[in-house]
Amino acid sequence: MAQNNVILITGGCGFIGTSLIDALLQGGCTQPIRVLDSLVTGSPEDLAEVTEFETLTVDQLHTAAKQVVLVQGDIRDITLTEQVAQGVSTIVHLAANTGVGPSVEDPRLDMECNVVGTFNMLEAARKHGVKKFVFASSGAPAGEVEPPIHEELPPHPVSPYGSSKLAGEGYCSSYNKTFGIDTICLRFGNVYGPRSKNKASVVAKFIKQALAGETCAIYGDGSQTRDFIYIFDLIRAIQAAMEAPVGGETFQIATGKERTVGEVAELIAKNLEAHGKSMQITHEAKRLGDVMRNYSDTTKAKTILGWQTQMDINEGIGETIRWFLAR
Ligand SMILES: NC(=O)c1ccc[n+]([C@@H]2O[C@H](COP(=O)([O-])OP(=O)(O)OC[C@H]3O[C@@H](n4cnc5c(N)ncnc54)[C@H](O)[C@@H]3O)[C@@H](O)[C@H]2O)c1
């Protein structure tokens, strides 16, 4: 029988995708979940850690017998993206070329994945009458502005990644105003937590390097600031956005707390010490495309989505280290 209540999660084999699927299933979700992932960073083994699933081609989707189905494919493939959105009511669009560094190394690839890929997903949503489209954006579109970042600040992206995410936000806005899709852009802070083993962001990178006995490199003097959000807090925000009867909106999803990278490195070192592990730190040249200060005002998410963070950073880092040590 044809379904029209499928949740489609692009990038569902990644850090945030697998955590979202885990939370949905733990929360009793009975809707079919379809994952579209090219497996460029996430893997079927990562998905298997949170659920059983079957791998199908788009032509086999009508035979799906399990609640979770993985379709291996790329969001840059127009034909595939249009086929995979059939029967879908909600798209959570997480697949992307992630991070500032990779976008500086290859701006064209970043543009093709994050601009064309997001456009393809929105077009697929329009053609199949998808009601809700949640887009994973970032603080990067805001760029070099006086923080706290909020939704009404004019964006000034510094990195190609910031530009490509801003373009995605732009298309989400127009697909809401022109075609009536309930698009929601969530500007994630710097996400850390369990399942971040493939990530190169500060917390995951430092923990992995320290546990491997490698020196951890801070770019610059460590005084640059970020807003570090724990994965479970972030997942609750995505779920709130999936449920909220709103569209055409952007929300900062972070903690509202400004922390230096140096301070976070010290917290990681202190937590590692409690497990008898040490951490060596070195300083390297500042990276192109990185902003000096970044933290968010999350008043809008609190007011409209009824969401706010709960996890204390020291506890969150402790949980993350325990997860890495348990592997
Ligand atoms: N993790 C963070 O701190 C953070 C911060 C801000 C925004 N975001 C955004 O959140 C989203 C998810 O991030 P994540 O941390 O889970 O990253 P991740 O790399 O762990 O997951 C991304 C997944 O997308 C897949 N993918 C990549 N390119 C693809 C393509 N062209 N077609 C299909 N699949 C593709 C990968 O294989 C991977 O499984 C991304 O859009 C990212 O830009 C993440």
Q: What structural category do the secondary elements indicate?
A: alpha/beta
Low-confidence stretches: none
Please, how many helices?
A: 11
The CATH superfamily of the largest domain is known as: NAD(P)-binding Rossmann-like Domain
Shape: globular
Main β-sheet description: 8 strands, parallel
Identify the strand order in the major beta sheet: 3-4-2-1-5-6-7-12
Overall pLDDT: 96
Number of domains: 2
Helix content: 25-40%
Total count of strands: 14
Q: Which small-molecule species are bound to the chains here?
A: nicotinamide-adenine-dinucleotide
Please name the CATH topology of the largest domain.
Rossmann fold
Question: What's the CATH C level of the largest domain?
Answer: Alpha Beta
Over the alpha carbons, how many angstroms does the gyration radius reach? 19 Å
CATH architecture of the largest domain: 3-Layer(aba) Sandwich
**Succession of helices and strands:** EHEHEEHEHHEHEEHEEEHEEHEHH
Distance between the termini: 41 Å
Question: Proportion of β residues?
Answer: 15-25%
Task: Write structural notes for this entry.
The protein contains 11 helices and 14 strands. By secondary structure, the chain is of the alpha/beta class. It folds into 2 domains: 233 residues, NAD(P)-binding Rossmann-like Domain (Rossmann fold, 3-Layer(aba) Sandwich), CATH 3.40.50.720; 70 residues, UDP-galactose 4-epimerase, domain 1 (Alpha-Beta Complex), CATH 3.90.25. The model has no long low-confidence stretch (mean pLDDT 96). Bound molecules: nicotinamide-adenine-dinucleotide. Nicotinamide-adenine-dinucleotide binds next to α1, α5, β6 and β8.
